[in-house]
Design brief:
about 325 residues, mainly alpha, 16 helices, about 65% helix, about 0% strand
Protein backbone atom coordinates (compact mmCIF):
# COMPACT_ATOMS: atom_id res chain seq x y z
CA UNK A 1 0.00 0.00 0.00
CA UNK A 2 1.25 3.44 -0.87
CA UNK A 3 1.86 5.36 2.35
CA UNK A 4 0.31 8.74 3.04
CA UNK A 5 3.82 10.14 3.25
CA UNK A 6 4.42 9.17 -0.35
CA UNK A 7 1.07 10.72 -1.30
CA UNK A 8 2.10 13.96 0.42
CA UNK A 9 5.41 13.95 -1.44
CA UNK A 10 3.58 13.40 -4.73
CA UNK A 11 1.30 16.36 -3.94
CA UNK A 12 4.28 18.62 -3.18
CA UNK A 13 6.02 17.65 -6.42
CA UNK A 14 2.84 18.09 -8.44
CA UNK A 15 2.25 21.48 -6.81
CA UNK A 16 5.73 22.52 -7.91
CA UNK A 17 5.02 21.48 -11.50
CA UNK A 18 1.62 23.20 -11.34
CA UNK A 19 3.17 26.49 -10.26
CA UNK A 20 5.95 26.22 -12.84
CA UNK A 21 3.33 26.06 -15.61
CA UNK A 22 1.53 29.14 -14.37
CA UNK A 23 -0.91 27.53 -11.98
CA UNK A 24 -3.82 27.77 -14.38
CA UNK A 25 -4.82 24.22 -15.25
CA UNK A 26 -5.65 22.44 -11.99
CA UNK A 27 -7.56 19.74 -13.87
CA UNK A 28 -4.41 18.71 -15.73
CA UNK A 29 -2.38 18.82 -12.52
CA UNK A 30 -4.88 16.58 -10.75
CA UNK A 31 -4.60 14.09 -13.61
CA UNK A 32 -0.79 14.27 -13.42
CA UNK A 33 -0.93 13.61 -9.68
CA UNK A 34 -3.00 10.47 -10.12
CA UNK A 35 -0.71 9.24 -12.90
CA UNK A 36 2.33 9.77 -10.68
CA UNK A 37 0.67 7.86 -7.83
CA UNK A 38 -0.35 4.98 -10.09
CA UNK A 39 3.16 4.75 -11.51
CA UNK A 40 4.56 4.42 -7.99
CA UNK A 41 2.29 1.39 -7.56
CA UNK A 42 3.58 0.03 -10.87
CA UNK A 43 7.11 0.27 -9.51
CA UNK A 44 6.10 -2.02 -6.65
CA UNK A 45 5.24 -4.76 -9.17
CA UNK A 46 8.35 -4.03 -11.21
CA UNK A 47 10.57 -4.45 -8.17
CA UNK A 48 8.68 -7.53 -6.95
CA UNK A 49 9.45 -9.18 -10.29
CA UNK A 50 13.14 -8.31 -10.17
CA UNK A 51 14.12 -11.36 -8.09
CA UNK A 52 12.37 -13.59 -10.63
CA UNK A 53 14.66 -12.30 -13.39
CA UNK A 54 17.71 -12.82 -11.18
CA UNK A 55 16.59 -16.43 -10.54
CA UNK A 56 16.11 -17.00 -14.26
CA UNK A 57 19.60 -15.68 -14.94
CA UNK A 58 20.99 -18.04 -12.29
CA UNK A 59 19.19 -20.96 -13.94
CA UNK A 60 20.59 -20.02 -17.36
CA UNK A 61 24.12 -20.05 -15.93
CA UNK A 62 23.57 -23.50 -14.48
CA UNK A 63 22.28 -24.83 -17.82
CA UNK A 64 25.23 -23.32 -19.67
CA UNK A 65 27.62 -24.98 -17.25
CA UNK A 66 25.96 -28.36 -17.69
CA UNK A 67 26.08 -27.99 -21.49
CA UNK A 68 29.85 -27.52 -21.58
CA UNK A 69 31.89 -30.17 -23.37
CA UNK A 70 33.94 -30.77 -20.25
CA UNK A 71 31.95 -29.46 -17.30
CA UNK A 72 33.56 -29.32 -13.88
CA UNK A 73 32.16 -31.51 -11.08
CA UNK A 74 30.43 -28.45 -9.67
CA UNK A 75 28.90 -27.68 -13.08
CA UNK A 76 27.69 -31.28 -13.46
CA UNK A 77 26.09 -31.24 -10.00
CA UNK A 78 25.30 -27.59 -9.24
CA UNK A 79 23.73 -26.29 -6.06
CA UNK A 80 20.15 -25.55 -7.20
CA UNK A 81 18.83 -24.27 -3.88
CA UNK A 82 18.40 -20.68 -5.10
CA UNK A 83 16.75 -21.50 -8.42
CA UNK A 84 14.34 -23.78 -6.57
CA UNK A 85 13.44 -21.05 -4.06
CA UNK A 86 9.75 -21.57 -3.20
CA UNK A 87 9.01 -17.88 -2.60
CA UNK A 88 10.39 -16.85 -5.98
CA UNK A 89 8.37 -19.61 -7.61
CA UNK A 90 5.21 -18.21 -6.06
CA UNK A 91 5.98 -14.72 -7.33
CA UNK A 92 6.70 -16.07 -10.80
CA UNK A 93 3.44 -18.04 -10.89
CA UNK A 94 1.26 -15.31 -9.37
CA UNK A 95 -1.61 -14.38 -11.68
CA UNK A 96 -2.03 -11.01 -9.97
CA UNK A 97 1.62 -10.08 -10.51
CA UNK A 98 1.70 -11.37 -14.08
CA UNK A 99 -1.52 -9.60 -15.09
CA UNK A 100 -0.34 -6.26 -13.71
CA UNK A 101 3.02 -6.54 -15.45
CA UNK A 102 1.32 -7.47 -18.71
CA UNK A 103 -1.29 -4.71 -18.47
CA UNK A 104 1.32 -2.01 -17.77
CA UNK A 105 3.97 -3.47 -20.10
CA UNK A 106 6.49 -3.83 -17.29
CA UNK A 107 9.48 -6.14 -16.96
CA UNK A 108 13.26 -6.39 -17.15
CA UNK A 109 13.85 -8.28 -20.41
CA UNK A 110 15.56 -5.27 -22.01
CA UNK A 111 18.06 -4.85 -19.19
CA UNK A 112 20.26 -8.00 -19.06
CA UNK A 113 23.30 -6.07 -17.83
CA UNK A 114 21.41 -4.93 -14.74
CA UNK A 115 20.29 -8.46 -13.95
CA UNK A 116 23.83 -9.75 -14.44
CA UNK A 117 25.22 -7.09 -12.10
CA UNK A 118 22.65 -7.73 -9.38
CA UNK A 119 23.23 -11.48 -9.62
CA UNK A 120 26.99 -11.00 -9.29
CA UNK A 121 26.62 -8.80 -6.23
CA UNK A 122 24.16 -11.23 -4.67
CA UNK A 123 26.31 -14.37 -5.04
CA UNK A 124 29.31 -12.50 -3.63
CA UNK A 125 27.40 -11.58 -0.47
CA UNK A 126 27.74 -13.36 2.85
CA UNK A 127 23.98 -13.78 3.24
CA UNK A 128 23.74 -15.65 -0.07
CA UNK A 129 26.71 -17.89 0.68
CA UNK A 130 25.23 -18.77 4.07
CA UNK A 131 21.90 -19.56 2.45
CA UNK A 132 23.45 -21.80 -0.20
CA UNK A 133 25.56 -23.67 2.35
CA UNK A 134 22.61 -24.21 4.68
CA UNK A 135 21.39 -27.50 3.32
CA UNK A 136 17.87 -28.21 2.17
CA UNK A 137 15.84 -25.04 2.44
CA UNK A 138 12.40 -24.32 3.80
CA UNK A 139 10.03 -21.43 3.10
CA UNK A 140 11.37 -19.37 6.00
CA UNK A 141 14.91 -19.58 4.61
CA UNK A 142 13.67 -18.83 1.11
CA UNK A 143 11.85 -15.71 2.32
CA UNK A 144 14.82 -14.51 4.35
CA UNK A 145 17.32 -14.66 1.48
CA UNK A 146 14.94 -12.74 -0.80
CA UNK A 147 14.37 -10.12 1.91
CA UNK A 148 18.15 -9.74 2.25
CA UNK A 149 18.39 -9.27 -1.51
CA UNK A 150 15.88 -6.41 -1.41
CA UNK A 151 17.54 -4.87 1.65
CA UNK A 152 21.01 -4.86 0.12
CA UNK A 153 22.77 -1.58 -0.79
CA UNK A 154 23.00 -2.88 -4.36
CA UNK A 155 19.36 -1.90 -4.85
CA UNK A 156 18.81 1.47 -3.16
CA UNK A 157 22.34 2.69 -3.87
CA UNK A 158 23.00 0.97 -7.18
CA UNK A 159 23.78 3.45 -9.94
CA UNK A 160 22.85 1.08 -12.75
CA UNK A 161 19.45 0.31 -11.20
CA UNK A 162 18.82 4.02 -10.65
CA UNK A 163 19.69 4.82 -14.27
CA UNK A 164 17.55 1.93 -15.51
CA UNK A 165 14.50 3.05 -13.54
CA UNK A 166 14.94 6.62 -14.73
CA UNK A 167 15.03 5.34 -18.31
CA UNK A 168 11.83 3.38 -17.75
CA UNK A 169 9.88 6.21 -16.11
CA UNK A 170 10.82 9.73 -15.02
CA UNK A 171 7.95 9.44 -12.52
CA UNK A 172 9.93 6.82 -10.58
CA UNK A 173 12.47 9.34 -9.31
CA UNK A 174 12.74 8.95 -5.52
CA UNK A 175 10.07 6.20 -5.41
CA UNK A 176 12.46 3.25 -5.14
CA UNK A 177 12.72 3.23 -1.35
CA UNK A 178 8.94 3.22 -0.97
CA UNK A 179 8.58 0.40 -3.51
CA UNK A 180 11.17 -1.75 -1.74
CA UNK A 181 9.39 -1.26 1.59
CA UNK A 182 6.18 -2.49 -0.06
CA UNK A 183 7.96 -5.51 -1.52
CA UNK A 184 9.42 -6.46 1.87
CA UNK A 185 6.00 -6.07 3.53
CA UNK A 186 4.60 -8.41 0.89
CA UNK A 187 7.28 -11.02 1.57
CA UNK A 188 6.61 -10.83 5.30
CA UNK A 189 2.93 -11.68 4.71
CA UNK A 190 3.70 -14.93 2.86
CA UNK A 191 2.55 -18.01 4.75
CA UNK A 192 3.17 -21.74 4.26
CA UNK A 193 -0.56 -22.36 3.86
CA UNK A 194 -0.87 -19.88 1.00
CA UNK A 195 -0.21 -20.80 -2.59
CA UNK A 196 -0.08 -17.27 -3.96
CA UNK A 197 1.64 -13.99 -3.15
CA UNK A 198 -0.42 -11.61 -0.97
CA UNK A 199 -0.17 -8.64 -3.33
CA UNK A 200 -0.73 -5.32 -1.57
CA UNK A 201 -3.54 -3.02 -2.74
CA UNK A 202 -2.61 0.40 -4.08
CA UNK A 203 -4.16 2.24 -1.14
CA UNK A 204 -4.61 1.40 2.53
CA UNK A 205 -7.97 3.17 2.56
CA UNK A 206 -10.52 4.22 -0.03
CA UNK A 207 -10.06 7.74 1.38
CA UNK A 208 -6.40 7.95 0.30
CA UNK A 209 -6.82 8.95 -3.39
CA UNK A 210 -9.44 11.56 -2.40
CA UNK A 211 -7.06 12.83 0.30
CA UNK A 212 -4.25 13.37 -2.21
CA UNK A 213 -6.52 15.00 -4.78
CA UNK A 214 -8.09 17.39 -2.30
CA UNK A 215 -4.75 18.25 -0.72
CA UNK A 216 -3.41 19.28 -4.13
CA UNK A 217 -6.47 21.39 -4.92
CA UNK A 218 -6.39 23.15 -1.55
CA UNK A 219 -2.62 23.68 -1.67
CA UNK A 220 -2.79 25.16 -5.16
CA UNK A 221 -5.76 27.46 -4.49
CA UNK A 222 -4.38 28.72 -1.16
CA UNK A 223 -0.71 28.87 -2.14
CA UNK A 224 -0.35 32.66 -2.25
CA UNK A 225 -2.36 33.16 0.95
CA UNK A 226 -0.37 30.50 2.78
CA UNK A 227 2.88 31.97 1.47
CA UNK A 228 1.88 35.39 2.83
CA UNK A 229 1.15 33.81 6.21
CA UNK A 230 4.55 32.13 6.26
CA UNK A 231 6.15 35.46 5.42
CA UNK A 232 4.98 36.86 8.74
CA UNK A 233 7.19 34.42 10.64
CA UNK A 234 10.44 34.18 8.72
CA UNK A 235 12.42 36.57 10.91
CA UNK A 236 12.95 39.35 8.39
CA UNK A 237 13.80 36.91 5.61
CA UNK A 238 12.52 37.84 2.21
CA UNK A 239 10.01 35.05 1.56
CA UNK A 240 11.43 34.65 -1.96
CA UNK A 241 14.85 33.87 -0.44
CA UNK A 242 13.48 30.94 1.53
CA UNK A 243 14.23 27.68 -0.28
CA UNK A 244 11.44 26.91 -2.74
CA UNK A 245 11.05 23.36 -1.41
CA UNK A 246 10.68 24.76 2.12
CA UNK A 247 7.86 27.01 0.93
CA UNK A 248 6.16 24.16 -0.92
CA UNK A 249 6.38 21.91 2.13
CA UNK A 250 5.08 24.56 4.50
CA UNK A 251 2.21 25.76 2.31
CA UNK A 252 1.06 22.19 1.73
CA UNK A 253 1.29 21.49 5.47
CA UNK A 254 -0.85 24.56 6.22
CA UNK A 255 -3.49 23.43 3.73
CA UNK A 256 -3.60 20.01 5.40
CA UNK A 257 -3.84 21.55 8.88
CA UNK A 258 -6.77 23.76 7.90
CA UNK A 259 -8.62 21.52 5.44
CA UNK A 260 -8.46 18.10 7.12
CA UNK A 261 -10.02 18.30 10.59
CA UNK A 262 -9.77 14.52 11.03
CA UNK A 263 -5.93 14.52 10.84
CA UNK A 264 -4.21 15.32 14.18
CA UNK A 265 -1.86 18.30 14.19
CA UNK A 266 1.02 16.17 15.46
CA UNK A 267 0.63 13.75 12.55
CA UNK A 268 0.77 16.57 9.99
CA UNK A 269 3.75 18.28 11.63
CA UNK A 270 5.73 15.05 11.99
CA UNK A 271 5.08 14.05 8.38
CA UNK A 272 6.17 17.32 6.79
CA UNK A 273 9.19 17.70 9.04
CA UNK A 274 10.32 14.20 8.01
CA UNK A 275 9.73 15.07 4.35
CA UNK A 276 11.88 18.18 4.79
CA UNK A 277 14.78 16.05 6.07
CA UNK A 278 15.01 14.28 2.71
CA UNK A 279 13.76 16.79 0.18
CA UNK A 280 15.02 20.17 1.32
CA UNK A 281 18.22 21.83 2.53
CA UNK A 282 20.17 20.80 5.66
CA UNK A 283 18.51 22.28 8.71
CA UNK A 284 15.24 22.93 6.87
CA UNK A 285 13.32 20.58 9.15
CA UNK A 286 14.12 22.76 12.18
CA UNK A 287 13.30 25.96 10.29
CA UNK A 288 10.01 24.51 9.04
CA UNK A 289 9.12 23.24 12.50
CA UNK A 290 9.65 26.69 14.02
CA UNK A 291 7.65 28.51 11.36
CA UNK A 292 4.76 26.05 11.43
CA UNK A 293 4.54 26.27 15.22
CA UNK A 294 3.98 30.02 14.91
CA UNK A 295 1.54 29.58 12.03
CA UNK A 296 -0.48 27.10 14.10
CA UNK A 297 -0.64 29.55 17.02
CA UNK A 298 -2.02 32.22 14.71
CA UNK A 299 -4.51 29.95 12.97
CA UNK A 300 -5.71 28.61 16.32
CA UNK A 301 -6.21 32.12 17.67
CA UNK A 302 -8.15 33.02 14.51
CA UNK A 303 -10.37 29.96 14.91
CA UNK A 304 -9.27 28.48 11.57
CA UNK A 305 -8.14 25.14 13.01
CA UNK A 306 -11.11 22.97 13.86
CA UNK A 307 -10.13 19.40 14.65
CA UNK A 308 -12.74 16.67 15.04
CA UNK A 309 -12.79 12.91 15.66
CA UNK A 310 -9.31 11.42 15.39
CA UNK A 311 -7.97 14.91 14.69
CA UNK A 312 -8.48 15.79 18.35
CA UNK A 313 -5.92 13.22 19.46
Amino acid sequence: MLSRRLLRIKVIKTLYAHLQTGGENIKASRANLRTSIDRAYDLYFQMLWLIVEVRRYAEERIELGRAKHLPTPEERNPNTKFIENELIRRIEESDAVFEHLKKKKLGWSNYPELIKELYGEMIASDYYKKYMEGGRGDLAQDIEVVKRFYSSPALEEGELLEATLEEQSVLWNDDLGFAIVMVVKTLEKVRESQSDIPVLPEFKSDDDPAFADRLLVESASEYEANLALIGRFTNNWDIERVALMDNLIMTTAISEIVSFPEIPLKVTLDEYIEIAKYYSTPGSNQFINGVLDKVIETLTADGRIQKTGKGLI
